Structures are given as structure tokens and as C-alpha cells.
Amino acid sequence: MLNIAIGGQNPVTHTGQLADLQITPYAKEKVTVKDGKYTLALPDLEDWYKIYVYENGVPREFGVTYVSQKFPYIIRGRTKLSELTFTPAYSSSSLKLVIEDYAGNQATTILR
Q1: What tens digit of pLDDT does each residue of 54-82 get?
Q2: pTM to 2 decimal places
Q3: Beta strand 74-75 with 48-55: parallel, antiparallel or unpaired?
Q4: Are strands 48-55 and 95-101 parallel, antiparallel or unpaired?
Q5: Judging by DSSP bridges, how do beta strands 85-86 and 37-40 pair with one another?
């Protein structure tokens, strides 16, 4: 709900939803590769929620805080930072990263 009043005028109220229809792709430059290990830096985006990393089309799993369960995505504020560094199973495998915001919008970045 949004109330707007200009000067001494009575406020006008509008109820609705913001149009969140897209998300900026994860910047490939935020990935560092050293000795075959990939390290993902946290995105600069304010509203990202999850990051999926696919190796040869299969989602990688990431550990989180407070539970021993692993998830097929990185969860903002829950995934252990140590999990952001990983070694792909094969040096020739394809790597794709999909970032998702709280509204469910997704954008894809091809790492290799």
C-alpha cells in the first residue's frame, strides 16, 4: 500500500504490486579459477535468493548452516561460505550458473 500526500492535500492511497520481472545475470568476472577449483563470490545484487550451479546439466549440492542436509542450490545467508569453492568432477564438464531472485526471476551465466 502506498499513501501519497502533496502539501496539505488529502493523501491518495494506491494498493498493488511492484513489477519485478527480471534479474541481472551473475557476473562471470566474480568467478575465480585456480588449479581447477572454482570460487564463486557473492553477488552484488540486492535481491538474489538462490544460485544453482549445473555441471553437465546436473545440479551441484551445497551445505548450509544449522543442518547436515545439502541443497541443489546456494541459499542466500544459509550456504556455508566454504561451499562456494568447488572442483568440477571433470576438466571438460560444462558449468552453468543460474541466479534467482525472490520473485522467481532467473538469469543464466555459462561458466564453461
Answers
A1: 999 999 999 999 999 999 999 999 999 99
A2: 0.82
A3: antiparallel
A4: antiparallel
A5: antiparallel
